[in-house]
């Protein structure tokens, strides 16, 4: 799949412990660090559970790699890459909820 | 599960006088199922003034037999008035909605399997200071998947009565009756989150949940298993295609014949009824006006009910969200999202149920865009018109051997034409008036569930009623107007020949306008009467040429060849492909968008496009042939 090809190039970069949600592979988890989105969209995502500090997991991807389904705090949410690209995440091991 | 009964912090007994109660809850909390369970069929549908948001008001009786109105508010995650749904919810809860009294109490429905997310809404509702009953729905799922919550502790934390219920099984709903007959003080929560950040609310929710011993249930195994098939790279699209074909087949191969059968039945009963009436204006009014009008409303019912049965199964089971994920990539190319796919597909059978089906699209702008492009899809009412004109002008010759003849190719071309215009219009809308930068594709994936017959049945009754009452009246009115236009002025108490009627006069009047398309006044009259339904133009042209289109189809085709140049015939086909020649669609758009603004815009736009395209086609073909 094409996105595997693209991600192959991101692999090294991800050692930096932080990136955007769209950089994660299916099956990987990370901690939400921040939403770089307009207030109404950010608000909606936070209501669904995308709150800084919570663990988000990439559950699976739709055909062609977009949109993908994420799980955060028990809620499963599908969104496109044009959105998940603006969600900053830190890889597990970084400070947790309520730091 | 420790306790299913209501646990009220203040136990002052004796009757209350709640007259209006608002039912609030996030999407996917089972709020609507609960509302239906509580009010049965005793509910009515309405629109709040000035918004497209629809709401149901249901009625139930308290222990004293007094009637209480239950207002079902749109599903919201928060009470920050950012979307139209949230604004409506806030306006009703604060008493700022004209025509709706401020509710005396609130029933807050939360999904017990997802408490941390849903408690955020609880904080905001409790802060309103209105007596509130918190119902933790889906208790059966919580228990089955080894989740837990201590109802008493949560009631203490929130300062409101709390009950674990299941809307599908009816478990714990006695709590509602208890709430109605016990005076409950305004909520006294131990602690409310600091107003402001959503993160603060979330942390509060987690703290309250932890204090109430909340243990999240395990993710349903079946949901994960099914998703690994339904969202599979290869199987996902394959299953999607099968489902889509099944939906299409149901409407086309089952709904269409049912509608035709109903039409035939109504026609024969109408004829029989007419035989018992003295001939004259009254008979004509009853049979050709009222009865025909009723018929043109009723024929849509089988298709609407079938489509909503299918969509109901897809939505209640949870598959509709997965289908949206599968279709999203394709739909995003035209600026729409995956949720528009099924409605647009159903528009190939009929735009009326398709437009009603757009209510599964959460984004208002995407929903309007889908409504606006749906009538461009080649619906079944266009087929008889296409068939007649193509048969009259195009000899059937093989184009690609036995696979494709010229007539079939022309038909296919018209399908493609409608689709291309729909796509173009969608792009146009989404890059101009319906630009939705702040409404991206975000879709919650509910776990898979079995749809219940009760919930499906209620939905069918609800949609059927909404169509008959709210759209049916407009369709009826236009039918009567058209009847009057074809039956006046009377001559010696007899209706006139069509060529002497009001509609013919209008046809003559618009002739200069349609002359550039190659149409004469007879086609003009056909265009006018076909607003009732597209295929009506065939009957009208038959009457105008004095031939019965049923028994003498070839005679009518000959008459058409005499009347229209080939270029004009192409123009007529193009006009029918694009024009919004359908009062039922107009009526349904008005009903779904709660106003005349969108249907007026849509009708003007489609008529302009149809006129210009027909003009272009006429000029081009005349030029080519010459």
Key terms for this structure?
heterodimer; A: 99 residues; alpha+beta; 3 helices; disordered N terminus; disordered C terminus; B: alpha/beta; Rossmann fold; 25 helices; elongated
> Could you name the CATH homologous superfamily of the domain at 20-217 in chain B?
P-loop containing nucleotide triphosphate hydrolases
CATH topology of the domain at 20-217 in chain B: Rossmann fold
Which structural class best describes the helix and strand composition of chain B? alpha/beta
Poorly predicted runs of chain B are 1-15
Report on the structure:
The complex is a heterodimer of chains A (99) and B (626). With 99 residues, chain A is of the alpha+beta class. Chain A has helices spanning 2-10, 39-48, 81-84, and strands spanning 18-20, 29-35, 55-61, 68-72, 75-79, 87-91. Chain A has a six-stranded antiparallel β-sheet. In chain A, β3 (55-61) and β4 (68-72) form a beta hairpin. In chain B, α16 crosses α17 (406-431) and α16 (382-393) packs across α22 (553-563). Chain B is α/β, with parallel strands linked by helices and 626 residues long. The N and C termini of chain B lie far apart (84 Å). The model of chain B is unreliable at 1-15 (pLDDT under 50). Chain B contains 25 helices and eight strands. The chains are: A alpha+beta (99), B alpha/beta (626). Chains A and B meet through α2, β3 and β5 of A and α3, α7, α12 and β8 of B.
Short structural description:
Helix content of chain A is 23%, strand content 32%. With 99 residues, chain A is α+β, with helices and mostly antiparallel strands.
Give the SSE layout.
The complex is a heterodimer of chains A (99) and B (626).
Chain A: H1 2-10, E1 18-20, E2 29-35, H2 39-48, E3 55-61, E4 68-72, E5 75-79, H3 81-84, E6 87-91
Antiparallel strand pairs in A: 1-6, 2-3, 2-6, 3-4, 4-5
Chain B: E1 20-24, H1 31-39, E2 43-47, E3 54-61, E4 67-72, H2 84-93, E5 105-111, H3 115-126, E6 132-137, H4 139-144, H5 151-158, E7 162-164, H6 174-181, H7 198-211, H8 221-230, H9 235-275, H10 281-298, H11 301-317, H12 319-332, H13 341-346, H14 351-357, H15 364-373, H16 382-393, H17 406-431, E8 442-444, H18 453-487, H19 502-514, H20 521-529, H21 536-544, H22 553-563, H23 566-578, H24 583-593, H25 597-625
Parallel strand pairs in B: 1-4, 1-5, 5-6, 6-7
Antiparallel strand pairs in B: 2-3, 3-4
Helix pairs in contact in B: 3-7, 9-10, 9-11, 10-18, 11-14, 11-18, 14-24, 15-17, 16-17, 16-22, 16-23, 17-23, 18-24, 19-20, 20-21, 23-25, 24-25
């Amino acid at each position: 799949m094409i996105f595997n090809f693209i991600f192959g190039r991101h692999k090294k970069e991800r050692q930096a412990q932080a990136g955007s949600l769209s950089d994660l592979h299916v099956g990987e988890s990370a901690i939400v660090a921040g939403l770089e989105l307009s207030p109404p969209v950010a608000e909606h995502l936070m209501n669904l559970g995308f709150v800084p500090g919570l663990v988000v997991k990439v559950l699976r991807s739709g055909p062609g790699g977009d949109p993908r389904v994420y799980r955060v705090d028990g809620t499963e949410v599908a969104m496109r890459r044009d959105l998940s690209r603006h969600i900053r995440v830190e890889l597990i091991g970084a400070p947790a909820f309520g730091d | 599960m420790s306790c299913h009964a209501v646990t009220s912090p203040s136990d002052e007994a004796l009757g209350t006088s709640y007259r209006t109660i608002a039912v609030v809850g996030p999407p996917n909390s089972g709020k609507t199922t609960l509302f239906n369970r509580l009010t049965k069929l005793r509910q009515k549908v309405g629109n709040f003034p000035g918004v497209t948001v629809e709401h149901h008001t249901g009625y139930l009786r308290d222990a004293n037999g007094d009637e209480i109105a239950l207002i079902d508010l749109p599903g919201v995650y928060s009470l920050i008035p950012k979307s139209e749904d949230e604004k409506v919810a806030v306006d009703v809860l604060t008493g700022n909605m004209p025509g709706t009294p401020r509710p005396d109490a609130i029933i807050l429905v939360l999904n017990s399997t997802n408490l941390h997310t849903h408690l955020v809404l609880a904080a905001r509702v409790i802060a309103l200071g209105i007596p509130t009953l918190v119902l933790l729905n889906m208790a059966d799922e919580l228990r089955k998947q080894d989740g837990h919550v201590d109802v008493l502790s949560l009631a203490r934390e929130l300062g409101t009565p709390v009950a674990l219920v299941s809307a599908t099984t009816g478990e714990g709903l006695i709590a509602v009756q208890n709430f109605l007959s016990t005076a409950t003080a305004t909520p006294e929560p131990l602690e409310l989150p600091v107003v402001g950040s959503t993160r603060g609310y979330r942390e509060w929710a987690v703290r309250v949940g932890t204090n109430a011993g909340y243990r999240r249930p395990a993710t349903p195994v079946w949901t994960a298993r099914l998703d690994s098939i339904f969202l599979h790279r290869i199987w996902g699209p394959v299953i999607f295609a099968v489902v889509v074909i099944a939906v299409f087949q149901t409407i086309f191969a089952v709904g269409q014949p049912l509608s035709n059968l109903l039409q035939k039945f109504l026609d024969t009963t109408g004829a029989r009824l007419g035989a018992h009436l003295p001939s004259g204006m009254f008979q004509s009014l009853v049979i050709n006006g009222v009865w025909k009008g009723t018929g043109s409303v009723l024929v849509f019912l089988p298709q609407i009910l079938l489509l909503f049965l299918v969509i109901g199964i897809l939505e209640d089971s949870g598959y509709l969200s997965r289908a949206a994920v599968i279709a999203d990539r394709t739909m995003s190319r035209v600026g729409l999202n995956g949720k528009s796919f099924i409605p647009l597909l159903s528009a190939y059978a009929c735009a009326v149920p398709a437009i009603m089906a757009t209510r599964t699209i959460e984004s208002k702008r995407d929903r309007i865009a889908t409504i606006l492009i749906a009538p461009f899809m080649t619906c079944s009412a266009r087929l008889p018109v296409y068939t007649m004109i193509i048969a009259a002008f195009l000899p059937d010759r093989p184009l690609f051997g036995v696979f494709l003849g010229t007539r079939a190719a022309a038909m296919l071309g018209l399908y493609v034409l409608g689709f291309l215009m729909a796509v173009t219009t969608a792009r146009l809308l989404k890059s101009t008036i319906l630009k939705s930068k702040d409404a991206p594709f975000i879709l919650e994936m509910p776990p898979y569930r079995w749809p219940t017959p009760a919930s499906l049945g209620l939905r069918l009754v609800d949609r059927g009623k909404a169509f008959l009452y709210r759209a049916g009246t407009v369709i009826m009115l236009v039918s009567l107007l058209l009847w009057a236009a074809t039956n006046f002025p009377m001559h010696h108490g007899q209706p006139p020949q069509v060529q002497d009627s009001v509609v013919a006069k209008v046809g003559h009047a618009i002739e200069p306008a349609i002359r550039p398309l190659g149409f004469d006044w007879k086609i003009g009259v056909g265009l006018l009467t076909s607003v009732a339904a597209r295929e009506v133009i065939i009957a009208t042209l038959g009457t105008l040429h004095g031939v019965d289109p049923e028994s003498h189809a070839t005679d009518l085709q000959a008459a058409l060849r005499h009347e229209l140049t080939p270029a004009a015939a192409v123009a007529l086909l193009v006009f029918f492909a694009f024009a919004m020649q359908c009062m039922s669609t107009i009526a349904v758009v008005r009903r779904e968008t709660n106003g005349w603004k969108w249907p007026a815009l849509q009708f003007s736009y489609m008529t302009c496009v149809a006129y210009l395209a027909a003009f272009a086609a006429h000029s081009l073909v005349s030029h080519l042939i010459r």
